[in-house]
């Protein structure tokens, strides 16, 4: 049954509409967004759907993944009052209100196929789907970047996750067959062609299903290491640092953290340069693999499940492979010839079985459109 039909069954009236926002994978540019740097994600064809209708006095949120509805009032909800999955929804209404925008109470039904907890930004997709629904139903005219900012504010200040802005910008600005090249300092977006099929390529997403541990704490630690390094170097953000400058840092850990960010920004710009110039995307493979090595050795955010997936994918013929997203588990992406995708997926699955690990889930990343009416 469609989400609209299910909504009608529950509420005995149809929704005012159904809105959707995608998850994302980041091709390259990891942990650069909160350093004012560059990122290059794509919006996935996996989306969070929200059926919504305005109502009076009480917002009720239901999810096909959750047994119980959650209720709150748009005019009064504050951080801490709603926790768990519904905080991503309540946070958006709160962020609109905080920004001085009109809010309305809503009946909401959430559904979707973005894997949760896999590092594919299911949370940003939920925030953005709610934000586009609310901006239409409350008659607020916002551009894509303004919606992304409100969604990020929900994540940072209501949910309390200290993330950068990449995920919401990807969910809002994504376009089919394009990468979203984002300068996180200026929020300038350039869409970069990424027509994999025309080059007989596939981008595999290997969901390692590795247990996430300490993710929040570790993410925050990386952020503060980066801020400390920028401070010591006397630059506003690591985006402004040079490799030569970074190598002068006395603290070995800070030096490695900063080196990752500086070299990762360079790799993003190289990948963009290649693709903008119409190069065969295979040429980006070594940069993807170098990004993985940098996350493993300098930024130290990989875990054995992702290292094995990236290494085995390359050994089995991938042009490049790297962990994507915040780290400590989640997904690996592998750029493969269309004809060798199944062999690469099979090799990673076999390597996991040898180690007694649960099988990974492998699917194709298809660059799709960003948030809007479903
Ligand atoms: C998470 C955050 C993003 C970004 C990535 C790492 O996905 O939400 O803002 O920092 O990690 O690149």
| Ions, cofactors and other bound molecules | alpha-D-galactopyranose
CATH fold-level assignment of the largest domain: Ribosomal Protein S5, domain 2
Q: What's the total number of strands?
A: 13
Q: Give the topology string: H per helix, E per strand.
A: HEEEEEHEHHHEEEHHHHHEEHEE
Q: What structural class is derived from the secondary structure elements?
A: alpha+beta
Question: So, CATH architecture of the largest domain?
Answer: 2-Layer Sandwich
Quick one: CATH class of the largest domain? Answer: Alpha Beta
Query: How many strands, what sense, and barrel or not for the largest sheet?
Result: 6 strands, mixed
Tell me, rounded to a whole number, the average pLDDT: 97
Question: How would you concisely characterize the structure shown here?
Answer:
This protein has 374 residues and is of the alpha+beta class.
Helices, strands, pairings?
Blueprint: H1 3-11, E1 17-26, E2 38-39, E3 41-55, E4 59-63, E5 70-72, H2 87-98, E6 105-112, H3 122-137, H4 144-159, H5 166-173, E7 178-183, E8 188-193, E9 201-207, H6 215-233, H7 243-246, H8 252-276, H9 285-297, H10 304-315, E10 320-324, E11 331-337, H11 341-354, E12 361-364, E13 372-373
Parallel strand pairs: 4-6
Antiparallel strand pairs: 1-3, 1-13, 2-7, 3-6, 4-5, 7-8, 9-11, 9-12, 10-11
Helix pairs in contact: 2-3, 2-4, 3-4, 3-5, 4-5, 6-8, 8-9, 10-11
Bound molecules: alpha-D-galactopyranose.
Notable characteristics:
binds alpha-D-galactopyranose; alpha+beta; six-stranded mixed beta sheet; Ribosomal Protein S5, domain 2; Alpha-Beta Plaits; four-stranded antiparallel beta sheet; about 375 residues; 11 helices; 2 domains
